[in-house]
Amino acid sequence: MQIEQEIIKRKKIIMPLFVIIFILSSFVFVKFLLNRMNTYIEVNGEISMEAVVEQIQQTYDMQVSGYYRQLHFVEGYLCKEKKISLETENNRIFFNAWEKEAESTLLFIQENGKAITSDGTKLKVDMPSKLLLDLRNGSNIGKLVALEFEQVKKDGYLVAIPCQEYMINGETYTAIGTVYDHSKLDSMLNLGGYDGSAYLFMLDDDGNITYTNQKDDIFFRNYSLLKHLKSDHAITEKEFDSLNKKIAGGKKGVELMGKDEPYYLGYCPIESNNTMLICIVKKATVDNVLKEYQKTIGLTTMLMTGFILLLFAGLFYSISRFSIANQKVKFEKRNNELQAMAISEMEEANKNLKKAKNIAIEALQTAENANKAKTDFLSNMSHDIRTPMNAIIGIISLIRHNAGDKEKVIEYADKIAISSQHLLGIINDVLDMSKIEAGKTVFKYSDFSILDAIEELNTIFHSQANEKNQSFIITKENLKHEWVNGDKVHLMQIFSNLLSNAIKYTQEGGIIQFIAEESETNSSTYGKYHFIVSDNGMGMSADFKETIFDAFTRAESSVTNKIQGTGLGMAITKNLVESMGGTIEVESEPNRGSSFEVILNLKIVENRVVSSTEQIEMHETDSDILDGMRILCAEDNELNAEILMELLKLEGAECTICENGKRILEAFEQSVPGEYDMILMDVQMPVMNGYEATEAIRRSSHEQAKTIPIIAMTANAFSEDMQHSLAAGMNAHISKPVDMKLLKKTIRNIKLGREEAQFIDQ
To answer: pLDDT tens-digit profile of 450-487?
Structure first.
């Protein structure tokens, strides 16, 4: 009995003691949470702002990219039709359907900013000349503008893309655009979380405002945001210079600005139209948002604390039935679990913000890697262009000094030719990569002999290998189907890139192998061909092997740095192979060589018979094809004209030069039938360009108007340029600089009526 009384007495003392201890512990815990709240707000203000800016950028980019896709659909229609009449029923149906679907007004825009709607209403787009220049230079634009009709002025958000020239009702247009209500974009980019207190701006690459959610008309104009902030003393001169550099460099981030009234300024680039997103929010506004969030967490924590008190009361009942020591252990364990639950709730609340931060860091790293690749590429390009240019300039000086020594002059001329071909190769690589990235590579399929293609490769690369005392071995295995249908030009480009690299990166005395093999397949229509290019050269590291097919990548070593190249060859090769439905793999070890395997399925051509034109071609050479020809030439560059005349003279041809399209049209119309055998037509000329001159010649009443061969001779080397030449009425297209061998081949193909005469792309 005494023992029981003693236990009861001890329980009466311990219970209040436990209650006091628990209350004090709860107070300390709540105090800890409040301190964490304040720390959380200070630390996570910028992170929260950065996540918001990135979300806005993604929302805008996704929406505007949709606008551009819609406009590209119209571009395809216009490029197909070339000349449009708005009165035609089919055109009205197409444009009305597009506007209904897009819920916006379609504009056809001229270079001077004048425009016309699909219903024929003429207007003027009041926007800075800078944006008109961006359009002419091939950039997409987005800008709040004023549309000036005859009696009405209306504001809207203009989204526009450049386009090939097209005609509407007899006038030339160079861009397509669409106009959306300002409110539509405002609604899309609404920042409800900041109670409408956020300022949004889009800036062009000069820092001028192209969009804002503010209604003041001043912001619709060609107006610099940073200059405005500086003049209002919202930023210092130092902050102005720092922000200018970051924004101009396409950086993204968040800055805390302003001493008296601090605010966050977030910035993020938008790649779809080369603009910069700026978001400005007062620090107090961001803090209030975070405080409200933390208040919710704090309230939850307080409720949990109350729950713990109730739970403690229940636990105390248990103490009367078990030993005090055991109950204390159990209580402490449960209390620790509940505290861990509370802390876990807070950690979960921070998880999303940390995730947003990690995403931002990864995006920044990706951007930095891309920027480094671009910088490395420009550095390599500068080196690779300057090297042959330095050689050309230096050799020209030597020619002047040794002008009387014919043998030396010929030697120097050969070296200039080699350096010039290398420069041309660099330019062609960049153009090829541009065509691939823009999806404008054109594939032309025709019947050709695999064996003939291999023999051409042997002719080209055997001599190159001999120059380095290398062995060039060609092996043909199980080629049951010689004739196939495919794009021979691009196939030869693939093998040429691989063989050229093998020769360049293999030491003197090395071995280069080319294997062509046809493997067994169940298809009766397609043959499966394996092409292997291998060498015993320097090989490559495992790390570089992983990136060899990436654009702008080159191995870095004391040996490879001396070898010229753009770092685009393998990227071009892989894209061409995959575009043909094939695969390419590489095996390589340092100092043991490399092996590239290309696998292609090529359509089999059965019962191939050599045509009469091909038989003629076998016996016909190009050496004297120009001899005695009288050619009418359009060339507005005086030096190029002089060079062309001398080159043709050397081949036995007579050449009459005209400096623009109008003069060549007049010369042709005034000539007697048969006076000229052919016309070489430059495209970019003053007064009248080559396309216009060709169309005028084909419309002429001259006896030869429809039959005289016209060859485009231009620096425009893209497939759309070739198509434009052919659409204008030309027979073929040759890229500058003009190679006389290619010119002769083109003339021969025209005489034979060969279709490939159309596309001679250097």
So the answer is: 998 898 888 778 878 888 899 999 998 888 888 999 88
Q: What is the DSSP string of 417-440?
A: HHHHHHHHHHHHHHHHHHHHHTT-
CA distance 476 to 486: 19
Phi-psi region at 162: left, alpha or beta (left = phi > 0; alpha = psi -120 to 50): beta
Q: Which of 569, 568, 570, 565 is nearest to 383 (CA)?
A: 565
Which tens digits make up the pLDDT trace of 386-397? 556 656 676 777
Q: How far apart are CA 234 and CA 251, in angstroms?
A: 21
The neighbour count for residue 618, using CB atoms within 10 Å, is: 8
Residue whose structure tokens are 């436990």: 18
Within 13 Å and on the Cβ side, how many CA atoms surround 627? 5
Spatial distance between the Cα atoms of 435 and 441, rounded to a whole number of angstroms: 5
CA distance 290 to 164: 51
**C-beta separation of 515 from 477 below 8 A:** yes
Q: How far, in Å, CA of 68 to CA of 160, rounded? A: 7
Q: Which amino acid is at 709?
A: P
Distance, in Å, from the CA atom of 663 to the CA atom of 679, rounded to the nearest integer, reads 13
pLDDT one-digit tens code per residue, 672-695: 999 999 999 988 888 899 999 999
Burial call 566-586: b when 16+ CB within 10 Å, e when fewer: bbbbbbbbbbbbeebebebeb
Of the CA atoms within 13 Å of residue 484, those in its CB half-sphere come to 23
Whether residue 761 contacts residue 717, with contact meaning beta carbons closer than 8 Å, is answered with yes
Contact 201, 220 (CB under 8 A): no
Other beta carbons within 10 angstroms of residue 294's beta carbon come to 20
Beta bridge partners of 447: 485
Nearest-angstrom CA–CA distance, 247 and 53: 14
d(CA 247, CA 269): 8
Tokens 């190009």 sit on residue: 622
Q: Which tokens is 166 given?
A: 């097209």
Q: Which residues touch 213 (CB under 8 Å, ≥6 apart)? A: 186, 189, 198, 199, 200
pLDDT band at 705 (very low <50, low <70, confident <90, very high): very high
47's tokens: 């992170």
| Distance from C-alpha of 222 to C-alpha of 615, rounded to nearest angstrom | 67
Q: How far apart are CA 395 and CA 667, in angstroms?
A: 40
Radius of gyration of the chain (CA): 37
Which of these, 728, 724, 721, 610, lies nearest to 665 by C-alpha position?
A: 728
Please give the domain boundaries of the chain with CATH numbers for all domains: 185-285 (3.30.450.20), 324-429 (1.10.287), 446-604 (3.30.565.10), 620-760 (3.40.50.2300)
In this structure, the dihedral spanned by the alpha carbons of residues 725, 731, 733 and 739, taken in order and rounded to 10 degrees, is -150
The CA-based diameter of the chain, rounded to the nearest angstrom, is 142
- A 10 A CB-CB count for 387 gives 15
Say how many C-beta atoms besides its own lie within 10 A of residue 84's C-beta.
19
Residue 30 identity (one-letter amino acid): V
pLDDT of residue 370 exceeding 60, the answer is no
For residues 595 and 587, the answer to whether their CB atoms sit within 8 Å is yes
Q: Report whether pLDDT(30) > 60.
A: no
User: How many Cβ atoms from other residues are within 10 Å of residue 729's Cβ?
Assistant: 18
Across the strands, what pairs with 528?
519, 601
Query: What does pTM read for this prediction?
Result: 0.40
The C-alpha atoms of residue 685 and residue 690 are separated, in whole angstroms, by 7
What is the Cα–Cα distance from 672 to 293, expressed in whole angstroms?
Answer: 89
DSSP 441: P
DSSP string for residues in 595-624: EEEEEEEEEE--S----HHHHHHHH--STT
**Alpha-carbon gap, residue 377 to 310, rounded angstroms:** 69
**DSSP for 98-135?**
HHHHHTSEEEEE-TTSEEEETTS-EEEEE--HHHHHHH
